[in-house]
Design brief:
This protein is of the alpha/beta class. It is built from 17 helices and 16 strands. α3 runs parallel beside α11 and α4 crosses α10.
């Protein structure tokens, strides 16, 4: 590269990723082929519109790429329509709201503090000024059970147009049938934001909301799905909804799609359609369960009591007297990256909450199995319990580095 400053930073980031262990549950490593497509000449092209209906010329290759991405996405998630143009998860959600509602209409989503996402109605977002968001919560924080009775009561009163299932910090499986039952009672559309678990659904490691009859799924493509940074909207079978979504993404919200990114999505979807990917997603779950087991044995409280998916939310402040920020920092020192996180009914503040959120998608991509995950969880707890002990931290760091060296980030998965 001619730009030595940027080249140096790319190399430094490659080294950081290679030498440390990535436990942020929304991160992963893509294949060399996904990187190649993302860095391809498609980045040079403007292609507003959709395949066969573009505003500019020269679209014979972009049309073919986008059609392939759509076809593979529909096969992967068992649905009829897909829009692969959303730049990421937030615009996918916003475009879906605008496609199906008028300003002032109501959406019911999971409370942010109980695991929901900012775009599900946090008051700090612009969309919360446009739509009315009402929330549901867990009934029992120790088991993660959602309060479906209260959900029904509130939905009957407020008559939301959309009932939204999905989360970014929740470790249990949702009962999609109950969401649908409530939605049918109040005439709402069902939408699942499955950004975190898209890969798990694609690999059939967890349930697909479409199987139970959900109308729409929104997602990012870069988490468990192991694709490039981006978003997508899937529609089970309703053509009218699909048309509204297309219009809402373009020209409603976005301009020219990022075709290099769509090419990379197509490559990732192709990889996700293989038996190897199925095996990978099952291993993600096994690995997360083992880590939860170690935390349980050490009497560290987990929100929801454990995990059914790829992530764990642990109350390290309540259990060990270490704040989420302290835990994140000290684990960073020994080569483990994860994130501090609010827990339900957190007595602390967002910038230094009680919890940490971590997961297994990236280390499973590296080839970690139960044995290595157990070891990582034990090392995490050892470091958290001895956060001021230099010797213990140095020794843990060495072990983490050795594990990372033994399991290099693969370049190919199929
Ligand atoms: N920032 C993502 C996550 O880490 O869960 C959600 O958008």
């Amino acid at each position: 590269m001619k730009d030595k400053l940027i080249e140096k930073l790319i190399k430094a980031e490659e080294k950081r990723q290679a030498e440390g262990l990535e436990l942020i549950p929304s991160e992963n490593y893509v294949s060399e082929d996904v990187l190649k497509a993302n860095g391809s000449v498609f980045t040079n092209k403007y292609s507003e519109g959709y395949p066969g209906k573009r505003y500019y010329g020269g679209q014979e290759n972009t049309d073919a790429v986008e059609r392939l991405a759509i076809e593979r996405a529909c096969k992967l998630f068992n649905c009829k329509f897909a829009n692969v143009q959303p730049l990421s998860g937030a615009p996918a959600n916003v475009a879906t709201y605008f496609a199906l509602m008028e300003p002032g209409d109501t959406i019911m989503g999971m409370d942010l503090s109980h695991g929901g996402h900012l775009t599900h109605g946090s008051p700090v977002t612009y969309i919360s000024k446009i739509f009315k968001f009402i929330r549901y919560k867990m009934k029992n924080i120790e088991t993660g059970e959602i309060d479906y009775d209260d959900m029904l009561k509130v939905a009957m009163k407020e008559k939301p147009k959309i009932i939204l299932a999905g989360f970014s910090a929740y470790s249990r499986e949702l009962d999609y049938k109950k969401f649908i039952k409530i939605a049918h009672k109040v005439g709402a559309i069902t939408m699942a934001d499955m950004a975190h678990i898209a890969g798990l659904i694609a690999g059939k490691a967890v349930r697909n909301p479409f199987t139970d009859g959900f109308d729409i799924i929104t997602t990012t493509t870069h988490k468990t799905l192991r694709g490039p940074r981006g978003g997508m909207i899937l529609i089970r079978d309703n053509e009218e909804i699909a048309k509204k979504i297309d219009k809402s993404i373009f020209p409603g919200l976005q301009g020219g799609p990022h075709m290099n990114n769509i090419a990379a999505k197509a490559v990732a979807f192709g990889e996700a359609l293989t038996p190897a990917f199925k095996k990978y997603t099952k291993q993600i779950l096994k690995n997360a369960k083992v880590m939860a087991e170690v935390f349980r044995k050490n009497k560290i409280r987990m929100i929801g009591g454990g995990t059914d998916n790829h992530l764990i939310l642990a109350d390290v402040y309540g259990s060990l007297g270490v704040t989420g920020k302290e835990a994140q920092d000290v684990l960073d020192e020994v080569g483990i990256t994860l994130n501090k996180n609010m827990i339900a009914e957190d007595p602390r503040k967002p910038m230094d909450p009680s919890g940490i959120r971590f997961g297994t998608p990236a280390i499973t991509t590296r080839g970690f199995k139960e044995k290595e995950c157990r070891r990582v969880a034990e090392l995490m707890i050892l470091v958290l319990k001895n956060k001021n002990n230099k010797k213990i931290k140095e020794s843990a760091h060495k072990k983490i580095k050795a594990l990372a060296k033994k399991f290099p980030i693969p370049k190919k998965f199929v």
